[in-house]
Specification:
The protein is of the alpha/beta class. It folds into two domains: 293 residues, Rossmann fold; 82 residues, no CATH class. The protein has a six-stranded parallel sheet. Strands 2-3 form a two-stranded antiparallel ribbon. The longest helix has 20 residues.
Length: 376
Amino acid sequence: MAEPALRIYLIPGMFGFGTLAGFDYFVHMRRELTERYRACGKEVVIEVVPTPPTSSIRYRAAMLAEQVSAHATDGLPIHLIGHSTGGLDARLVLSPTTNLPVRDDQLEWTHRVKSLVSLNTPHYGTPLAGYFATVSGTRVLYALSLFTVVSLSVGEPSLAIFSKLLAALGGVDSLLGGDSRLIGRATEMVLRYVDRGGRGEIREFLSKVRQDQGGVIQLMPEALDLFNAATEDNDQVRYGCIAAAAPPPASLKIAKRVRSPYAALTAGVYSTLYTFASQAHKRYPYAVPSADEKQRIASGVRSEVDDRSNDGVVPTLSMLWGELLWVGEGDHLDMLGHFHDDQPGSLHTDWMTSGAHFGSDRFAEILDKIVEFQER
């Protein structure tokens, strides 16, 4: 096997993880990137940098700096890929004037970074963060974290049973708006479908969500206004972004289109999230697309994109930072390969039913654009 030619670090977003209960969060992206570089005759080292699920951006950025510095000791060129809040973590680490609670030598590797690609990152914030910061929103955040972890690690077939359990508990509205005892009951019921070895890991993950939500308020448009004023781009790094928009919930027509009890459940969750994410702030606007970006957005998304458009979590126009590499229809985790796939033997598991109909063709386009950008 040839010697590695470069290093790529994958950075998860809020309520994201590296490996949990035997499931690799970036499994699809890691595999696709490796295959593309091998097709070019290059070996690549791909590492996932797990960060606390809902901690502050500064704390997450410090952990990113510490972990990369401990592994990137071979002098190879470095490329960063940050999903959602992970893109903000990377921007803060790369800023020439950053002030992180780390040693100077733990930032030396940043001089070898060639590019940062952000996927569905809230560079200008998301209104959903304001809701998550409320008492009821905190419960929703916990429930969403539980839902994300279990849906990806267990898979859709078992979650058909999961949806029946939730119906017995009162359905989506009761779970997302209920008290902590209801959510606690749901947690224990859901974990019965996770193998015994993974239950402890998931409980620990959810405990981190409960104990530290410092990053949630920092994703509000008001807070990102300050973040962007204080965080400089690094002149030695190329910045690129992937952006997506999912259809408004009204287009789902749930009664006719959902495929299973699981799809019905996730369509309800998606509708709730999309509604909050579409409430744009009047005083803190998102990016204003250039003429070229407007044309590309219009070509990639069937419906008109405005400040209400989002992927179920992050507003589409908030995702624009640096060069726009790809824009199209998809939800927040489609970008990582977590989408429904009817192909026999497929290992893809859908996160939630958004009606975006994202598939392997769009995922391949995104990976092609990322590798092309890194290889310039």
